[in-house]
Amino acid sequence: MFRKRKGKQLPKRRYDTVDKTISDVFERAKKSSDFTTISLFEEDQLKISFYKTLIDPSILQKSVLPFIKEKASAIKELTDLTEIIPIEGITFTKDYHEVEKALHEGSVVVFFKDKKDEFALLNISYARLGQRETNDTQNEFSVLGPKIGFIEDLSTNLHLLRDHLGTSDLIFEEIMVGSRTKTKVVIAYLDGVTNPTYIDTAKQRLKELDVDVSFDNTQLEQLISDNTRTPFPLFITTERVDRTVGSLLQGQIVVIGDKSSYAIIGPVTLMEFFSNPEDYYLPSIVASFFKLIRIFGMMFSIFASAFYIAVFTFHFEVVPKDLLGPIIYSRANVPFPPVIEVLFLEITIDLLREAGARLPTKIGQTLGIVGGIVIGQATVEAALTSNILLIIVALAALSSFTTPIYKMSNAVRLLRYPFILMAAIWGGLGIYVGLILLITHLSRLKSLGVPYLLPLFPYRKGGVVGSFVRPNYLNFNKRPWYLRALSLKRFFPANDKDPNEGLDTE
Amino acid sequence: MKKPKKHLVFFFILVCIVSLFGCNRTRIIDKISIVHVFGFDQADNGELVGTALFPQYTKSKSSDQIQYLEEQASSSVLFVPKMAAHTSTPVELSKIRVLLFGKKYAEAGIQDMVDRFMTTPQLGTNIHIAVSTHSARETLNRFKKEKSLTLAERIDHNMQGQSLPTMNLHVFLNHFYGEGMDAYVPMINIDENDMVSVEGMGVFKGDKFKLQLDSEQTALFSILKDYRSQATFKIPLDEKDRSEIIIIKSFRGKSKWDWNPKKKQMNLRLQLEMTMSQHPRKYNLEKVQEINKIKKLIGTNLEKGIMELLETFKENEVDPLGIGNIVRSKDRNWDEASFYQLYPTLPIHVDVNLQIIHSGLES
């Protein structure tokens, strides 16, 4: 989307109605039932207007109204309000655009009835109204490590980041997105670490973005991504705070939006999708093993059923002799060729998955039993599929869940189908043709201008091992240089000081 | 306007690939008849008899349902079409694990058949080739009665852990077509209890079966040929007393051939590591002298056996050890015909260097 608009003129036309004067603003606001205007003095001199759905009524009742009423006579000018009302952040403006904006942010507007050219804005918004209180991670679980996740409130999320990263190098830059919603989006980065090119690119894309609404960062991610015609996510969308802080320290930028519990991390490489914050909490050997398991799981999930088709349709020679018996026996009564069989079961599994995601949790458990046990067993007994295939498809579905990032696991889930079709047409050759097309596609992808397959292609020395395993902290004190961070060293491991040395010399 | 053209080219290539490879016939695993063992015999009228065993897995999970087919044809190419007339699904040769020749047919010459193996790419070369003392027909019939398809496994484990020298179709073809060597195969026998057994080996001369070795000769041959032969030898010291016997098992064996061009003599140095399983009580193995004594005893015995074996080869003018090939590697002017004229009288000096790595314990 971003790329497509390149070279075109930005549209001049606005999509929302434009107010000409300040009275237009109030006129239109009054149409809403939640817009309230209170007159304070006997001659309706001083008026207070606000959206009662946006402000915190208790502050209004306790800290605003009593003070104004008490010293009503003292108010001659609007600027006197600063001395009367014990609230920080009273601003005065003559610009009606600002008034309108402030109203929507939860300010009360104070003005004299006959002097409609100056307004005092008191911000008493109730930002936490309607927000959830729990901020456990909902979709990215880990056994170890903090379980704090982002919630759908920008200030909370920024608080979490600032709280975790107590350095003034952490910079937040705010940008408005959405011509109607005016959603606040914050680009966070570490000054002196993050390469300014990434910041500029992200900022430019966000600023030039012309949409009316951004519901969620997962949507925003697609709007600013380098290639929108790919199943692969080009940014990591995460709800984990530790992951976000970790990537800030790596020299990546983080985009956090209001009303979204997901942070966007960019630029990212493909292999980063298979690492998990928990990798850093486990010993590096254990973590590396699990990371390899995850990568294997991704491969298995994509290729398992494709290989089933290729082998059972074209290359039966590769089946070991002792396996021929059970396989043929279980397939003997199946009337379909392996493709139909596989497609039937794969679609069933995806139906179950999709239904499980849409259903309420309590019914979802029943679905697991119905889907997993009843349908699985029944299809085999009805000779619609073979036993072996049931195992393979179930394993493939299982291993697609090992990918920590949901968007990537969806991409893996989808990629199965082209490979299944390729294998059905050309067998093993089809899988290789598909693999070549896939690698070509991957090597053309970019995330914020950074090649997606980075340490592998274009090959960068010293990054390949780190993208498959989790290196030891002693060897892991630098940021990956191919991400072009401004400073590479992260920490200096002290020399090994073995207390035994001292004891032995005694 | 460059982009759509690119897409067109890409699409064209895709169409080409589909039409080129999409014509490949599918071979769905449960809709084919997979031949496991194929046997060849010669019929009385000079035609070939092909026999094949198919497991019928669609009827049973284990391989106890075996279909047996026998066809007579003038050429081996005709076997498959003729067999296909009897099967419900297409016959596939690519999973053949053992090729079996009847001894009579092997003695008459198998050149045309081996040529066919070369031109049948479906056949893997990591499969066994064997000759049966009875006709291949009889042997396969025996297997059908046994309800097992384990011929390949029988040959396999005998090669790995027993005295059979390793051999597969790949090596066989090399020996068959190679200069300065002759092919050898394991022998399949139906013994007096009507059981199929793997016993000894047979040696070809050219394309004709020439010589059959018994088990003891095969064991000696395998320590000459293989590095990790596990052949067991029995050396009786006294014919009458059952306890006067040495039993040794080979563990590792390195044979080093040396051609002396001046004397026209072959030197064989055999470095053996063996384990002793049983020995007479009169030898006390804790004493070095006694060990040396027993080592010498075994050494001379093995040397004698090997000399006899080599004599047998020379008498029959067969060269399964590839001595001609060894000489060829040392001699630039080697000529096959003139070497094999000399071969029956070629002096071969054998020197066995034996090491006993442990005794008593069975391994």
Key phrases:
heterodimer; A: alpha+beta; 5-stranded antiparallel sheet; 17 helices; 12 strands; elongated; B: 363 residues; alpha/beta; GMP Synthetase, Chain A, domain 3; 8-stranded mixed sheet; 11 helices; 35% helix; globular
Side by side, the strands of the main sheet of chain A go 1-2-4-5-3
Q: Order of SSEs of chain A, N→C?
A: HEEHHEHEEHEEHHEHEEHHHHHHHEEHH
Report on the biggest sheet of chain A. Answer: 5 strands, antiparallel
- What's the overall average pLDDT of chain A, rounded? 86
How many E-type strands of chain A? 12
Cα(first) to Cα(last) distance of chain B is 77 Å
Estimate nothing, just give the exact number of structural domains of chain A: 3
Largest interface: A-B, 25 and 28 residues
Reading the helices and strands of chain B in chain order gives: HEEEEHEEHHEHHHEEEHEEEHHHE
Shape verdict of chain B: globular
The oligomeric state is heterodimer
Query: Which bin fits the share of residues in helices of chain A?
Result: 40-55%
User: How big a fraction of the residues of chain A is strand?
Assistant: 5-15%
Major sheet of chain B: order of its strands? 4-3-2-6-7-8-9-10
Number of strands of chain B: 14
Sheet of most strands of chain B = 8 strands, mixed
Weakly predicted, low-confidence segments of chain A: 1-6
Helix content of chain B: 25-40%
Work out the strand percent of chain B: 25-35%
Record the SSE blueprint:
The complex is a heterodimer of chains A (506) and B (363).
Chain A: H1 22-30, E1 35-39, E2 46-51, H2 57-70, H3 81-84, E3 90-93, H4 96-104, E4 107-112, E5 119-123, H5 154-164, E6 170-177, E7 183-190, H6 196-208, H7 217-223, E8 236-238, H8 241-250, E9 253-257, E10 263-266, H9 284-313, H10 321-331, H11 338-358, H12 361-381, H13 387-400, H14 406-426, H15 428-444, E11 446-447, E12 450-451, H16 464-468, H17 499-504
Antiparallel strand pairs in A: 1-2, 2-4, 3-5, 4-5, 6-7, 7-9, 8-10, 9-10, 11-12
Helix pairs in contact in A: 9-13, 9-14, 11-12, 11-13, 11-14, 14-15
Chain B: H1 2-21, E1 33-34, E2 37-42, E3 48-55, E4 66-73, H2 79-84, E5 91-92, E6 98-102, H3 103-108, H4 111-118, E7 128-132, H5 136-146, H6 151-161, H7 169-177, E8 184-190, E9 196-205, E10 208-213, H8 215-225, E11 232-236, E12 245-260, E13 265-278, H9 288-316, H10 323-330, H11 336-342, E14 348-359
